[in-house]
Amino acid sequence: MRSTSSSAHRSRSARTTSRSPRRWPTWRPSQSCSSARWNSRTSRTASWETALTSRILVEQVKGVLAERWNASVDDAFAAFRSYARAHHLRLSELAARIVAGDFDTAAIPAPARPGGHQD
Question: Which domains does the chain show, CATH number per domain?
Answer without folding.
Answer: 49-111 (1.10.10)
